[in-house]
């Protein structure tokens, strides 16, 4: 390997030794109880990103359960999390040979020091490495222009007001055909597509997939709505261990009605495998 | 109304007074604890149908929580339920003005009388009647032939072996273009579409929508697989109170891989509203 290329590779963060790993690491206090400081580095308009929080809960459950990988994780978001101290309480619901199921709660403290629950999660874990290779998928990867024809937050004035520290930690390159909202011309279609990675070059793993499914701008922006789109519930399926390299994420909304919408995400890896799917129910502020 | 038509209407079961209502009714034992006898009438190949069980849990949570309707309910299926006595234990996780969140477990008893957990559920409830009428949906109802050109279990030899009492309680008319599997010629596409109702004519409500999302034959059959397709996790969103009349249900699978598949269901009412969406992760037995 030429020296320059070697030096470049050496500066890339690796799984287990990256900002994402450090900021999602939980510390065992007593069996099933974990401490964590929620990092201010993953905030979007001053709220802690829901995908980052899901990854924190996912790692605590991976420590509690006998299986390593979240096959399906369902999170109900109760109150808005703040950067700072938090505790995760886990419970083993059932352990089986192929799958085990657990529950976890993320809690923070109010002004009187009382615990306030932020998120509750149910999840079934397995081991992705034990799955057969059989793939009979009808799905095709999203059609995305090459990365250099896509646009990130660094390519223009911040399209979203407020502090969004998370944008510094992501490699996010949005398909220009889903960027009309940023130019005041939303397409009216509930679609958002992007190349996705971590800014420090860390490759994807099942936990960063939990971040990936909730890291793009809301599809509601392309439907012409603005403002915060808080998640009520998000369920993610991790279907395969992602190959190294950038991910492609596609988000689709079919039904905006009654002040709620669903967001369906698909995450594809560099080997053209559909590695994660998610759906969330979110609230929108109608004009 | 002519006398004959009036008599016909009089024989239809109504919401609150139907087999489905009686078989999903839970009896309060102590606050948050409910007894129920799981009916043998909703079994499919001797297993109690997962949608029926979800409706039972949904009704218990509706009794516990201050809001009446399941907006989003996530169920992780742990062990196979049997017809007979069961208990539902609920917990109020959070109550808010618009939404409240609860948790519920369905338990049965082993030979030594110990409780065995069958299903654990997290759900956020609201009141569908308070939602604004605003609809900006990109989704269109599934293309289904008229009901009289579709086929139900009564139209041919039972395509699935074993006792399937549930078929007597459903009005299920499958789109012939998704019925190849029953003739030994699966289409290879992961699609299943049907007209859906309750056999006694009871109209749909949010709880019967929980049944509707898991009542069609598995899409895996049309992909050419056979055998049981047990649900690992199912999340359903109820988006609108359904209008009277038959429902249209469409199920799609995009990704069968590694011995698992997702099933996405959409339920449309007679007023062309998308009233429920669901996604489940299920296991398949690979040949």
What's this, in brief?
Helices cover 14% and strands 37% of the residues of chain A. Chain A has helices spanning 3-10, 19-24, 50-64, 206-212, 219-222; strands spanning 27-30, 33-38, 43-44, 47-48, 69-77, 84-95, 100-109, 115-126, 170-174, 191-198, 231-238, 247-252, 256-257, 260-268, 274-283. The radius of gyration of chain A is 19 Å and the shape is globular.
Topology:
Two copies of one chain form a homodimer.
Chain A: H1 3-10, H2 19-24, E1 27-30, E2 33-38, E3 43-44, E4 47-48, H3 50-64, E5 69-77, E6 84-95, E7 100-109, E8 115-126, E9 170-174, E10 191-198, H4 206-212, H5 219-222, E11 231-238, E12 247-252, E13 256-257, E14 260-268, E15 274-283
Antiparallel strand pairs in A: 1-2, 2-6, 3-4, 5-8, 5-11, 6-7, 7-8, 9-10, 10-12, 11-15, 12-14, 13-14, 14-15
Helix pairs in contact in A: 3-4
Pfam families (chains A, B): 4HBT_3, 4HBT_3C
Domain Acyl-CoA thioesterase-like N-terminal HotDog (chains A, B): 39-124
Protein name (chains A, B): Thioesterase family protein
Task: List its salient traits.
37% strand, homodimer, 287 residues, disordered N terminus, mainly beta, two-stranded antiparallel ribbon, Porin, 13-stranded antiparallel beta sheet, 2 domains
């Amino acid at each position: 390997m030429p020296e320059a290329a070697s030096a470049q590779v050496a500066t890339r963060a690796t799984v287990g030794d990256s900002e994402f790993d450090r900021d999602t690491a939980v510390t065992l206090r007593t069996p099933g109880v974990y401490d964590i400081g929620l990092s201010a580095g993953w905030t979007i308009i001053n709220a802690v990103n829901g995908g980052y929080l899901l990854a924190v809960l996912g790692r605590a459950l991976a420590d509690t359960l006998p299986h390593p990988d979240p096959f399906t994780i369902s999170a109900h978001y109760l109150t808005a999390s703040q950067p700072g101290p938090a505790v995760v309480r886990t419970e083993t619901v059932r352990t089986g040979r192929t799958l085990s199921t657990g529950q976890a709660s993320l809690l923070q403290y109010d002004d009187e020091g009382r615990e306030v629950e932020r998120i509750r999660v149910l999840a079934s874990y397995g081991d992705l490495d034990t799955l057969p290779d059989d793939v009979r998928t009808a799905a095709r990867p999203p059609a995305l222009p090459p990365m250099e024809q896509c646009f990130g937050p660094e390519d223009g004035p911040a399209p979203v007001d407020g502090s969004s520290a998370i944008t510094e930690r992501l490699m996010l390159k949005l398909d220009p055909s889903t960027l009309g909202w940023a130019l005041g011309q939303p397409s009216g279609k509930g679609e958002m597509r992007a190349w996705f990675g971590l800014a420090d070059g860390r490759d994807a793993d099942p936990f960063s997939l939990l971040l990936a499914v909730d890291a793009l701008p809301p599809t509601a922006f392309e439907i012409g709505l603005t403002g915060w789109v808080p998640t009520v519930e998000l369920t993610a399926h991790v279907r395969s261990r992602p190959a190294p390299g950038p991910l492609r994420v596609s988000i689709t909304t079919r039904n905006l009605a009654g002040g709620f919408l669903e967001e369906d995400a698909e995450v594809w890896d560099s080997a053209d495998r559909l590695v994660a799917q998610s759906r969330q129910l979110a609230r929108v502020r109608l004009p």
